[in-house]
Fold:
Amino acid sequence: MPCHPGTAHLYFLQEHKSTQNSASRYQILRYMLRRWERHVSEKRSLRLPPIISLLLHNGKDGWKDKRIADLLHPNTRALCTLYTAF
Structure:
């Protein structure tokens, strides 16, 4: 990917969870969308800045959800390769 001179914005999104919640990935996706909507509104540009999301879990049980595609209906999982992994 070629680099272009100029200013770049990079956002880090951190979410902390102490209990397992399958909707957490969806919640992070909503946060990202809100940030991009604000960017488009303020900058009037569809060149979206990258957002690096990090979900921290400190619960006793391990985290079981792996990606946002895990939230899709089982009959549509074959389409998961079309989605960006979150």
